[in-house]
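Per reviewer request, we include the raw input and output of the structure prediction for the construct analysed in the revised manuscript.
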Amino acid sequence: MAMAGNLHIHPYHSFGVCKGVRNNLLLPDERTVIFPSGKHSIRFHIPERRSEFIHGTKGNKGLLSLTLSLDQRYLAVSERGQWGTITIYELKTETCPMKQVLKGQDLGVHEFVSLAFSADSKYLLGQSGGPKWSLFYWQWIENEVIATAQTSNSAVVSQVSFNPYDEKQICVSGKGLLKLFELQKGSLRQGKSFRVEKENILCHAWLSRDCFISGTETGKLLMVKSSRLHNLGMPFDSKTDKKGFSAPGLLPSVTAITSFSKGFACSTGVGLVCLYENSDGKDGYKKSAEIRIPEETYTNQPLQAIATMCISPEEETLAISTDRGQLYKISLSSPEISLNKKDYFEFLCHPLHSGSITGMSVCSSKPLIATCSKDGTVHIWNYNAMFLEQFKEFDEEPLCVSIHPDGHSILVGFSTDVCLMNLLNNGMRIVQKFNIHNCAECVFNHDGNLFAATSNKLIYIYNIRTQNSLELVGHPKKVQSVRWSDDDQHLVSCGLDGTVYLWNTLTGTYESKNETECSYADVMFSPINESILAVDRSNLKEIQDGRIQTELTSEGLSYTAIARTHLGERIFVGTSAGSVRVFEYPLEQKKPWTVYQAHSRPITKMVVTPSDQFLLTASEDNCLLVWVITDQDGRTLEMVQDMDYTEEILCSKSYLEDKEDSISELKAHVEWQRSELEYRLNMKDVDFKKNLKIVMQNYVQQIEALQDQIKVLSTEKEDQKVFYQDTIATMIEKYTKDLKDEELNYSKAMVAEHDKYVYLEKKMQMMQQNHEKKLQEREANYLHSMEGMKQSYETKLKEFQDKWEEEVKNSLAYKEAAEFEIKDIYHSYNLDLQMEAETQEKLQLDMKFMEKKIAQHEALKSRIEDQGCKINNLQQETEDLKKQLKDAKKNINDLTKEKEDQNNTMNDQIRYIEELQMSIKIRDKSLEEKQAELSQLITEGKLQEEQNKLRSEKERSEVDQLQRTLQEYKEDLRMVENKLREIKAESEEVIADLKEKVKSRDQALLRERHKVRDVNIKVHRMTSDIHNCARFVQEPKKLKKSFIELHERYMHQDEVTMEIDAQVMQEHTRNTERLQNIIASQNASHIKELKHEKEAYAKAVRESGFLVQSLNYQRAVNMKLQNCLKGKSASRSAG
């Protein structure tokens, strides 16, 4: 449908995790987690408590599986719907845009139960569900399925994964299933399969290139190393670990495994994780630590199975999710793990609901939400800080909840009674109980003095101050919902009986009533308080004075909850599909509505905060979503612009007394610490002065000794200086004499070397002249010998051609003789078959019991087929004979059918059958002799062919040379194509940089517009406040005070001019025009370069075509020579 007016709602925050999603917790870094909530994926920033919604595709019915690439850049999400869908998102930007959508409709797949990225993030695995259980190998960027394979016939597949060191190797695990697949030549082929029929493999993780570990439902760890399966036993010890395994009927399953650089972590039983580290550097792993989920921090039922486990890329944090929808984390560098080898998890942010949310209420004076769930807990949330203020677990399931308008009390309904509790700073305390059984709905009025509660088909109104009660009787069936009017004088209710009542809360009677054949789910007053809005399973109705004024159908969906803004502009309706519909008020038949995807299961409760800032939706998927309400300009629709919430809380007297006692004790302790610190400082000062005197005396003595030593060393230095000067003078004289002698010797050696060089140069010239003469003589001799060899080879070639023609004639003659001989054999064999057919026709009337004969004929038939196949492989000319033999076999089959009808006379013809067997054996012997002759001919032909292969080596070398040249041309073509790709990539980078600059300019302009809008808002507020001050014109003191407040509120800030400079706009336009010109010039240059590259490519193609023609010609010549050799071998064998 189209949008309802100009109002929008956007998901802002989520309290809750979808439990049934595979791999429902991801840890891209130390400060961020990703988990599914409703129909969305949430990227939650832990320190800021900020959520970023990664929206699913339109029309999805929920999520099935998540996976994150190893570089933390891409997120793949498997979605449920009519057909399975896989959506890939890019996580490097805040908006997380969709990069690709892989649709199962094209593949006939309804769901994908497991996903996995390759190590380089280029490929994606998708495992479909039953009954086909097909595995798809995608190059997901191109949306191309490279290969598919059926991983299982009927067993459930739990996980698929890539080998992180080899993207062509895949591991698949499941119930009685542990297999390895390999990608070979565009298809997935099963490699190694391990025998685990009795085990249910729940998870696995790769440890190295040839090693991975898996966990079973019975608590075993199975390691595969070098294609061998090793049983590592059960990490859970029931003797030493009774605390973590207290349920005898629950197996300590290994439900999650993840690897890290030092080893791996695995879940062992309920609420327990064990860390294993590599002990010997090979494949030996030893348990290094145990980490538990603390029992006392969340629930009295501590059995939480670990569903997903992940480690951050820096390996500093381990995070887990449980089967009850809780998220925990722990720092792996904590000292407790390294010292005590045991530690406990802590909540990732706060406890969450693990069951369907059945009740919700919002406070009007504080930013608090109260929710109750089937998990037996009541949570108090702060929707401004997006944090859990407090929660309490009860032994009995709370059915409904309502928070007092002042935020200091809460009303909780149970099956036995309704409890009024005070919200203290450290918990909830029951102050009063009301005897109301099976209370499914309770709600405070606007001032908090009264509350209405339902008990099956009755409605009770209680006054908390006076303890008076009023009973409203009228509904014949269970009451579903009750709401107070704005003035608290009326109450509206609806029930499963299809009745809507408008009650007078003062008299206890109803003023109007509407009955229809339906089952209402929720009801509320319209914005004008004169009509009632109600939703049943298929309609939204507006009722006034007991009559239906407007009725809008749901078009196939069931409505479950309703809410509206306090200004009355919009109506929000929740559906059984988990979506939110927004209607514009007043309701009209032709007005469209807007649909927003929200939860994966039906919405149970909806409410709008008092300031019209947020819409809150609760669902059976145990998630609470916070939506921000905005207009078309993105501004929130707050009814009160600056709403001040109260911050007071209730504290018990004992708590205050304990706090004062602790403060006095701490003050005394501080005084004692201060006096002790002064005493210690004085003692340290005295000790320091003593030590300083001793150190000073030692240093003075050392200084005097060092001064005496310096004097002695200075005298020694003078003596050594005189000695070194004398020795240096004598050495200089000696080296001058040696240098002169060496110069004389060097000049004599140079003269001798020059004479030798002149002599060798003359000798080299003489040798060069002699060498040239010898070369000329050899060249002449070579030409003469080549002419002689050419003539001799020509004569030999003519002789060879003559011999070849003779051999061809002989081969033709041999062929004719062979054909004639084959025809004779065929004719004789055909006569034998005819004789056999005649004998069979004679026996048609007498043969009834021919079972032995049928077996013998089948043996004969198989032998004839074998002989026919051999003859067909050896001699193609006998194809006609084979067809006739098949016809004969058909006749034999017809005869055998007739023999089955005449089995009664078989015993009388046994003797004649034995004679036929003898004749058949004789024919078999003749066939075997002919087969031996043919095999001998074939062996002789093969020998002759091997001899002829040696003669054609020269032709083969020429063919290889042509192939090499063709390969060089192909390599040149590849280089040209690579160059084109590089040019295209450079141009795309330049274009992207230019677009980024344009985008930055636009963003700056947008910021200036936002500043202008903020100043306008500020001026509007200031004028409204000035108008409010006009009331105090007759009261100067109040007027002065109000103007002082206005001055302090608005004039203390620095005023900023918000006008956009015209030069900035001109510069922006100039930059855009310059960028367009640059892009146009680059496109023109790229077109020219592409044209030149195409011409070069065409030239290379023509040259390659010429080479291919020459290669085909050489192949034809080679084939002719081979045929000649075969004919020659055949003629020799015939001779």
